[in-house]
Amino acid sequence: MEMIILNKGEQYIAKIIFRNRIYEYIGQQFEDFFVAIMTKINSNFQPVKAYGNIGDKKNDGFDQTTGTYYQIFSPEDITKPKTISEAANKLEKDFIGLFEYWNKICQIKQYYFVINDKYKGVPAPIIEKLSELRANPLYKNINIAIFSAKDLESIFDKLDENAKQDVVGFIPDNISPIIEFDALNEVVSYLVNTELRTFFPDSLVVPDFDEKIIFNNLSNVVNHLLVVGSYQEGRLLQYFNETPGTKEILQKRFRLLYEQAKVAVPNDVEDSADCRFFYILEQASPRKTLSICSSVLVLMAYYFSSCDIFEEPQ
Question: Which uninterrupted H or E stretch holds 198?
């Protein structure tokens, strides 16, 4: 396999895409994402798939060489009281079930209750339930712990560059010097045929580009992508002139994507503006290739400058 070398910008983008997966994935999606990372970092990690009516016996994956087991819980919102109660009950029930079945097969030395907390932190009732299990003399030789989104990010950071790209997919650090109309057509067709659920009024103000970058706290990496994308505005306007009505349809679509990004990525998370930028890029790309992502980035630069995505400086 050819060794991939990620530059500083690509390393940063890979982490942003990783975080977007954390915000977006729930249930089986998150479990598959977790397994993909763990199998990259540890060749001894063995995922356990449910089998018939016996299920997985509360074991989503383990390393039999170290006696380390993982059980995954990935709700939509860990802060809801009902979800917190479900998580605490699941922690207790799943651990007891795991111990009864798996401890005689491969002795349990370390148990992780994996929670996709979306960087919000683990609620106190779950920590209390963890303490109760630790205090049980039956489990005194087992290290029982929580494994959060931040812990998974630490594992991801340790992966080599090939493995990181395998996990997050195409990393769009550069824009093609010349926009390809075939790729642009594919992107436009994809977006035009995506259902619009709402409408936003037109923006009446076109702000200064650099001022808007600063106001939205976007990074130098994103700034570079937007600036380079804006260089191709002439070819994009030519395309709009040849396809009447397309510009207005895409304007509404990108405004909707930005509103969705604000819901998916809360304001208080680290690098939230950049996470929203790459959320829009991924959602607007029918395929993850250089030509497709370049087309989307050119469109994003255009609608960024016209204040259809991201906030207008006040």
Answer: none
pTM for the full model?
Answer: 0.88
Predicted confidence at residue 184, as pLDDT, reads 93
Rounded to whole angstroms, the Cα distance separating 165 from 15 reads: 10
Q: Where in the chain is the domain with CATH 3.40.1350?
A: 25-167
pLDDT in tens, 34-47: 999 999 999 999 99
Q: Quick check: 17 and 169 in contact, CB under 8 A?
A: yes
* Buried-exposed string 240-271: b where 16+ CB fall within 10 A, e elsewhere: beeeeebbeebbbbbbbbbebbeebbeeeeeb
For residues 15 and 26, give the distance between their C-alpha atoms in angstroms, rounded to a whole number. 19
> What's the fold here for domain 25-167?
Trna Endonuclease; Chain: A, domain 1 (3.40.1350)
Hey, what's the torsion of the CAs at 63, 66, 67, 68, to 10 degrees? -60
Question: Which tokens is 208 given?
Answer: 């200064």
- 169-212: per-residue pLDDT in tens? 888 877 777 788 999 999 999 998 876 555 455 554 556 888 89
